[in-house]
Amino acid sequence: MRRPRGYPADMTVRAYRRLSVEERRAQLLDAALSLFAHRAPEDVSLDEVAEAAGVSRPLVYRYFPGGKQQLYEAALRSAADVLELCFAEPQQGPLTRRLSRALDRYLAFVDEHDAGFAALLQGGSVVETSRTTATVDGIRRAAAEQILLHLGVPAPGPRLRMMVRTWITAVEAASLIWIDEGKQPEVEHLRDWLLDQFIALLTATAATDPETAAAARAALALEAADGPVGVLARRVIPVVSEAVHLL
Amino acid sequence: MRRPRGYPADMTVRAYRRLSVEERRAQLLDAALSLFAHRAPEDVSLDEVAEAAGVSRPLVYRYFPGGKQQLYEAALRSAADVLELCFAEPQQGPLTRRLSRALDRYLAFVDEHDAGFAALLQGGSVVETSRTTATVDGIRRAAAEQILLHLGVPAPGPRLRMMVRTWITAVEAASLIWIDEGKQPEVEHLRDWLLDQFIALLTATAATDPETAAAARAALALEAADGPVGVLARRVIPVVSEAVHLL
Fold this sequence. Notes:
Chains A, B: Residues 45-64 bind DNA. The structure is a homodimer. By secondary structure, chain A is mainly alpha-helical. The first copy, chain A, folds into two domains: 1-65, Homeodomain-like (Arc Repressor Mutant, subunit A, Orthogonal Bundle), CATH 1.10.10; 73-237, Tetracycline Repressor, domain 2 (Orthogonal Bundle). Helix content of chain A is 69%, strand content 0%. Chain A has helices at residues 21-38, 46-53, 57-63, 67-86, 95-122, 130-150, 158-180, 187-206, 210-222, 228-240. In chain A, α1 crosses α2, α1 (21-38) packs across α4 and α8 (187-206) crosses α9. The longest helix of chain A has 28 residues, at 95-122. Chain A is elongated and about 70 Å long. The termini of chain A are far apart. The interface between A and B is large, with 60 and 60 residues.
């Protein structure tokens, strides 16, 4: 039960609505995530969370008796649940179409939670613990597993696994830079560039790793000429065509 | 004045050598770095630093009156000085030869300081502060500036800058994974793969960014057929040759 965008946070009338335990919990987490999205967790007070959710401070404590640390971890967990689902996608059609949809979901989350996303990934918060670090690592692991499933290699060798993990880090880094630069370029361009990076890394790794080469061949066979790989290939040719001395 | 490898840390005889202030300071930083390399800063005591350097605890305090926090920051600063110099390289010859030498230096540092390098980059230490975060960011910035100089584009547009920063993150991530996986594959293979990634990212970004395309063309013109780009190109062709339906 996410609060609709634009719904005023101080409409205390919401405090009087009868919500189920699950709805109330979701409402509190949502209020907390919105606040953590714009300020570091240590700068957010429980009073503010209560006010943003239009409830009393004791009610926040009833749901989260561990106070801010527990609320922060639960909010992080709920963000992680969303992020971990980003790369879940039916395993059919061209790989780039599946990754493109996954990136759209991921970048929509980044866009919505910008400062909170940055705080989450960069750590350094005083409420950061080994548990929150494990949560972030869990998101990365889930994303890697999904991508490897899409590549048809659920149990990869070290090279392909390293390539996928490296690309996930590149996606994170590019997202942080994107937030930092006032969300330039447009999100669709960022997505297409990250997709191009994936194709480039897969191809470069295929050059020296037979397992990756087999996965790349299988993936390429499903791509269409008007899809991202075809467009990238036709654009790369003019750049490299002057370098025939290298072949 | 680095302590030679294999020099026993508990040879207290060293305490009686007359060292200059600078030599003593370097010796203490070196002892601290060795300890921080294998354990998180919060688990290292000043007594251990004193013992590793073969000096008394008061002497450590005389050089670092701020105690462990100051010693940690100074050790980090000295590590940063080494890392920032990694990518400094004469601007002549093929780009891949320059980057290859830079990666050799960087990965030698990673190899020598493994756990300390991981702790440094992953943060989460209780002695982590905004100053230490700024130091790590400074290393990344210095590396990016050097690479952009090698590309002949000291003041790049957002796309090329993002590409270089993304690759630096990929190098960091791959280094951490490499440590995590017991330093497999061999460091030369890791270096060559990171170099292949750079070529792949540069080429993919050149597809949609004219500035990057110009830099890539200029870089390719300096490459030799038996260099990394030539080898990569000849290895990639068999993988993509089945995908002529995309052209």
